[in-house]
């Protein structure tokens, strides 16, 4: 199984590819198509890679009693939970319209299929990848059917144990090599103490052949940026036009300015991560030339003298001679010319010294 794969047409994730940033609109559109389109445009303008929704076929996701129960929350859009959810659910034709709009804007479009029927619809309209929400992560018949469809998958892991996630990995892997797992804690808003970013590194150890990411519900962007520094290859954050809008997700969502700053900060951190190879870089040459230290004569050293450590010192010197790290290698070598006190030791005055000085 590859550590990197094509999540969307022409867009690879994992390896050294840029972090894939999902702007989760979810149901923060309030059931309004114009708000939904405005949020898609917001995601694009802020630099996110994908605008994502949540698609449900309510009779397949909930049983009758769940839909009929009274729903009196301040966030309710109806007298029963079913009425509330129906208000927030777009039709299949509306999803096609949103998908078309996202293509016109120039951003990838997908949705979490919140039940098997919804997954069938999303497969039919050819979303680039399936997102598995935390509520279905331990739904193994659903996982298997979704994986068999062959589209890439991004699987959240809220409310799950490591033992369950091992089963999830094995289940999906049997049918689909192209998937990522996201660390997630299902609380809205999420307190820093419950984020558990270290799970990212544990997932990297447990599942070294797939990309690992982070789905966050915390306030602000700092924790999500830290996830990228830990190696997250996918970041998912909820977005909103108004944190005070009606609905339980808005408070933990990012407004335009926050999403734009998140994208900017992630791209900055990616540049800063570097190659992992420690070496003197070209940008350091000016500092090295000005302040880099060399080996100098602590005392006057006559021609023919065999060098001892007490004859040598390390200073910022002009001209630059042997670098400071070579001082012990010079001990026992013979100088072929007289070296004045406080002068640099240069390669041409040290007999049979194979290593040339840095210049």
TrEMBL record:
Keywords noted in UniProt: Antifreeze protein, Secreted
Domain of life: Eukaryota
Transmembrane segments: none
InterPro entries tied to this protein: AFP_Neu5c_C_sf, Aldolase_TIM, Antifreeze_III, PseI-like, PseI/NeuA/B-like_N, SAF, SAF_AFP_Neu5Ac
Gene3D superfamilies from the UniProt entry: Aldolase class I, Antifreeze-like/N-acetylneuraminic acid synthase C-terminal domain
Location of the AFP-like domain: 294-353
Localization, UniProt: Secreted
The protein's role, per its UniProt record: Contributes to protect fish blood from freezing at subzero sea water temperatures. Lowers the blood freezing point. Binds to nascent ice crystals and prevents further growth.
PANTHER family: N-ACETYLNEURAMINATE SYNTHASE (PTHR42966), SIALIC ACID SYNTHASE (PTHR42966:SF1)
Protein family membership: Belongs to the type-III AFP family.
Listed name of the protein: AFP-like domain-containing protein
């Amino acid at each position: 199984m590859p550590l990197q794969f094509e999540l969307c047409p022409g867009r690879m994730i994992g390896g050294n590819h840029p972090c894939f940033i999902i702007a989760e609109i979810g149901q923060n559109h309030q059931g309004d198509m114009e708000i939904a389109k405005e949020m898609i445009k917001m995601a694009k303008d802020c630099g996110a890679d994908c605008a994502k929704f949540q698609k449900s076929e309510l009779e397949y996701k909930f049983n009758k009693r769940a839909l009929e129960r009274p729903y009196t929350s301040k966030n309710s859009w109806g007298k029963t939970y079913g009425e509330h959810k129906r208000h927030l659910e777009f039709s299949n034709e509306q999803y096609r319209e949103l998908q078309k709009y996202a293509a016109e804007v120039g951003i990838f479009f997908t949705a979490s299929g919140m039940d098997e029927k919804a997954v069938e619809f999303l497969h039919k309209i050819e979303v680039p990848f399936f997102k598995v929400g935390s509520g279905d992560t331990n739904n193994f018949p659903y996982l298997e059917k979704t994986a068999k469809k062959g589209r890439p998958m991004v699987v959240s892991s809220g409310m799950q144990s490591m033992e369950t996630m091992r089963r999830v990995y094995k289940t999906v892997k049997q049918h689909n090599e192209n998937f990522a797992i996201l660390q997630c804690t299902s609380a809205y808003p999420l307190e820093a103490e419950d984020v558990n970013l270290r799970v990212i590194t544990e997932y990297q150890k447990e599942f070294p052949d797939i990309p690992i990411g982070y789905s966050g519900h915390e306030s602000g962007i700092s924790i999500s940026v830290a996830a990228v520094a830990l190696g997250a290859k996918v970041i998912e954050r909820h977005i909103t036009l108004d944190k005070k809008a009606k609905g339980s997700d808005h408070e933990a969502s990012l407004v335009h300015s926050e999403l734009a700053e998140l994208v900017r900060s992630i791209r900055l951190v990616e540049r800063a991560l570097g190659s992992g190879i420690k070496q003197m870089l070209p940008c350091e040459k000016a500092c090295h030339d000005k302040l880099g230290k060399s080996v100098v004569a602590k005392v006057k050293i006559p021609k023919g003298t065999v060098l001892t450590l007490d004859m040598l010192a390390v200073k910022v010197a002009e001209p630059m001679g042997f670098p400071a790290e070579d001082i012990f290698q010079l001990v026992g070598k013979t100088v072929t010319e007289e070296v004045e006190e406080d002068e640099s030791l240069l390669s041409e005055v040290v007999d049979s010294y194979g290593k040339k000085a840095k210049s």
